[in-house]
Amino acid sequence: MMKKRQVVLKRDGRCSTTSSSVVRNVRYVECQKNHAANMGGYAVDGCREFMASGEDGSHGALFCAACGCHRNFHRREVETEVVCEYSPPNSSNRR
User: Fold this and answer.
1) I need a labelling partner for 73 at 20 to 30 A (CA). Which of 14, 23, 46, 50 fits?
2) Separation CA 39–CA 12 (nearest Å)
3) What per-residue string of b and e applies to 8-40 under the rule 16 or more CB within 10 Å gives b?
């Protein structure tokens, strides 16, 4: 299974005590390549999940070990998670 993780940090300039980050997990699932397109039909090979045939950064990382198709033929799912961190104001000034 090929998983990518992209982390994007966003800082809110209006409030210095609050920050948030956006975490995106990218996953490639079933293959959608139409193997019968040249005959005018529709047939997929049934590959359920992308499995890289090489290490990250190599040429093989873009091709599925199960079906041999390029990663672009597999449906892409992106999970986005927003993580907010909050630091309460200094409470030592309160009486």
Assistant:
1) 23
2) 55
3) eeeeeeeeeeeeeeeeeeebbeebebeeeeeee
Contacts of 77 (CB under 8 A, 6+ apart): 26, 27, 28, 29
Joined tokens for residue 83: 């993580």
Please report, as a single letter, which amino acid is at residue 56.
D
| pLDDT one digit per residue (tens) for the chain, 95 residues | 555 554 554 444 443 445 778 888 999 999 999 999 999 999 999 999 999 999 999 999 999 999 999 999 999 999 888 877 766 666 555 55
70: part of which helix (H) or strand (E)? none
